[in-house]
Amino acid sequence: MDFVSIRVITGDIARLVRFYEHATGVRAHWSTDDFAELRTASATLAIGSTRTVPMFAPGAAHPADNRSVILEFRVDDVDAVHQNLAGSGFIAEFIQPPTTMPWGNRSLLLRDPDGHLVNFFTPVTEDAIARLGG
What is the pTM of this model? Predict the structure, then answer.
């Protein structure tokens, strides 16, 4: 089995796709006006509008209603990501500025425009680099 993607449901797909394109530097692939994917070498972030929910099960997903999942992106330079996003107007809230965590990652924690927690991190210690790649 391979874990290949996570899908976020949103009430404003254009806004959320613009945020993730800006934050990651990855251009979205749009299948329809209601569905886009940001594809990386290791996983895909799929973003669907609320109009896609009834195709699965009406009422099964609610936009901007997550308080338990953190979307994580490994980046080359977390401090540069912070600088890029700080003046962008996209961020609902910075939760934690770039901070080196006890497990060896330098992390930036924020909320995306829909309020989802997002962690951008860079492995910085020898152990973290060995575990996750540099």
Answer: 0.91
